[in-house]
Amino acid sequence: MKTRILGFVALAAVAVMLVVALFVVPADLNQGDAQRIMYPHVASAWLGYLSFGVTALAGILWLWKRDLRFDAVAVAGAEIGVMFTAFAIWGGMMWGRPIWGVFWQWEDPRLTTTALLLALYVGYLLFRRLTDDPERRATRAAIVGIVAAVDIPIVHFSVEWWRGLHQTATIGSPDRVLNPAAPMVFVGTLLGTLAAFMLAWLYFMIRRYQLARAELGREEQVRRERIEAARAPHPAASPTEVAR
Amino acid sequence: MSALRADARIALEIARKDAVGELRGRHAIVSTLFFSAVLLLLFGFALGPDSARLAAAAPGLLWLAVVFAGMLAVSRLHLLETDDDALEQLALYPISRRAIYAGKALAGLAVMLLLGLLVLAAVGILFAVDVGAAWLPLVATVVLGAIGIAAVGTFYAGVTVRLRAREVMLPLLMLPVLAPLLLAAVKATAAALAGDPFGDLGAWLQLLVAFDVIMVVAGAATYGYLLED
Question: How far is B212 from chain A, CA to nearest CA, in Å?
Fold first, then answer.
């Protein structure tokens, strides 16, 4: 019930911020209406990073405490992180087309880093599906998630350097929105969108966690039923079968 | 300190076992070497016969070939351990898991060094790049790249070796992680071949060192959990 209330609050908050970002806040002087994409884009990119951090942390906690609830948190983080990251990339491309003239800008380190991040965690999710035993799956997924998280900062630095150790950045990066000169109305809208998305994120996380727990319970039940079926006498050998 | 020395001895012993197996059976090096040669040929076809263009692309092609072939080579060494549950046997010994990881990674490193140097020579010949002039920084790059690929490859080979879909999962998991290595190695190679005109060769080599150190530590710290199940 509490989760459902949270869901409605999150939905309302996202709807309000949608209206604010689309109609209330004035358009950017240089970028026009396209700049409005930045509000959900930046918020979802941050939440993507947050989710992957949660996955890595939950993996460490599983290895430490051996409680399968942490694995449920890990899968929730990875799946929701992939969703937000994909949304962030999509939004970035929609913004990049009118502003940069191209969907994909190789010189933007955030874009390339985020794309690799998406690949890492899609791999993580596919990898999870290949192991049936829950504890084995949790352990393998935990270490893959930890190593992926360790790789993120290296990817970020290398891509940042790769763009050019010598040339200065020529294109305004998305986060310039938050520079001190930006008017408060833009900053406020961004933070408001972030807060609304955060509520939605929390709701998704709780629901996905509950789903993961239910899946685990179901797996356990199927396993128990199979064991019992194997223990029960074979129908062909029972007297009624023979008589027929 | 003596525990560390014991670990090192065990790691060398495991690497020696793999080296002997490799010398007798040639599971990893020969096939992957020819695979990388085929890759270089295909890269040449894909980019066309313009020799200036091929020479400009040579650093990238070199490292793509080394990464792809290296991934197969390092995973072959792990595949050997699935015969007769050898890995499980290894895990039953009262030795530290780090030593097992280090041993497998050392064997992988030996294969990677051989592979890297031979592919470097092949790139020099096929794409008319003068690798002799800047041999020292090039060899340094190959060594650092080989360490990184061996460290990451051994870890992911261990992760995927018992999966049904390991042929797909290994590259899917491993290649995005290797992206920073590819990037730094290509940049370092290009800088070395051009005579380091911007003075950024050292920075890329440092990035490779950092990648190697972080991945060796991460692999050694987590690999043991794989042997539990």
Answer: 11
